[in-house]
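Usage

Read records sequentially. Each one opens with the input sequence:
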Amino acid sequence: MQRLIISINLLLLLTQVYIATAQIQPDEIKTNEPFHVELDEQDSVTLHQDQPSAEVLNSKGESFFDKKDYTNAIPYFRKAAEQGHARAQYNLGYCYDEGSGVPQNYSEAVKWYKKAAEQGHARAQCNLGYCYDEGSGVPQNYSEAVKWYRKAAEQGNATAQCNLGYCYEQGSGVTQDYSEAVKWYKKAAEQGYARAQYNLGVCYYEGSGVPQDYSEAVKWYKKAAEQGHARAQYNLGVCYYKGSGVPQNYSEAVKWYRKAVEQGYARAQCYLGYCYEQGSGVPKNYSEAVKWYRKAAEQGDATAQYNLGLCYYEGSGVPQNYSEAVKWYRKAAEQGDADAQCNLGVCYYKGSGVPKNYSEAVKWYRKAAEQGKATAQCNLGYCYEQGSGMPQNYSEAVKWYRKAAEQGNATAQYNLGLCYYKGSGVPQDYSEAVKWYKKAAEQGDVDAQRELNQLNGE
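and closes with the structure output:
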């Protein structure tokens, strides 16, 4: 009775393009928001004074800043700031933060933000919180970040509300509290703040701090997407692709992926490539698929690197080239992509694009197997059974076959049944053998069906 060669069966898996689930993790904290150069409504300019007022000086500085004449803006901001004008102090801090008209100096930025923040200037409070959050110009201190975000958020500053929500979601400087995160995201989202709308959509999609509700997720993704938020556009595309919260519509999915793609968003490039490969919402076009996989892969997207490797392995949209396949599998594998690790192991096992090397095959199978990849677990078990790349060990073979078999891998189920039939690594047990043969046979495994027929005398 011959054992099934796993690597042959694995070729069937290599024909499948792997696409990861939508990346719907909350976006990173927003970077500092540029100040508005217009005067606030309460800022009145007094023209009939012997000495220019701080408001006039600040206004003059903002006028220069608006024209991108940062060097001439600085003296006016500084004079007004030294007179205690909060908005000018904020503006001067911002210039130091960005290096606009002065050498970039985060410590000076913090100094001026703090002066304005202590006078209640909301934007300064928000940016000071961000400095503490990032350790920019001050030692990193999440509790201080939360303190200043809260002061600004309570004044209605949308950026601070979003950032405070993120702190609650991550448990940074406060006790993790998803409901509080949602509360602050919603306040900012209702003001039209795109990043908060996106994050609120994520919460509804995941059921984090609110009951899971795909329709609400779509609602908030759409609001952010319509403002040009690339991740929201991508996630909205995912919802249309999967039919989550909206009727499934591949054309709409492609529309929103494309909008995110136009902003260079790598994950959307990958999914757009997948749509071209599958002919979902666009005519099937393998060359276009490769084009978009490559764009995403070159930005470091692991799924795209894996998919591009697969295209080279199969000669789909590009001439077949095992060396190129290995190159892209390796890039994805080194980022921890389990599918790429498994397929890289296959390449080493078979000598496809690299010299045959069972030890390297085992190395990559193990990495994928430890992440729960069933095919890799099965292949690792096979290597233990054959003593390929490691000492032969039937008990370890059974261990890994079982892990894969319990995930429904038909090849592993057949191999585990064969171990029980032969008493290889486990006590001989025909009942257990039949049990696992049946599981594999029900999935169409012809070897398992053959063994059952032989056992039944057919």
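Summary fields computed downstream for this record:
- The radius of gyration is 30 Å.
- Residues 1-49 have pLDDT under 50 and may be disordered.
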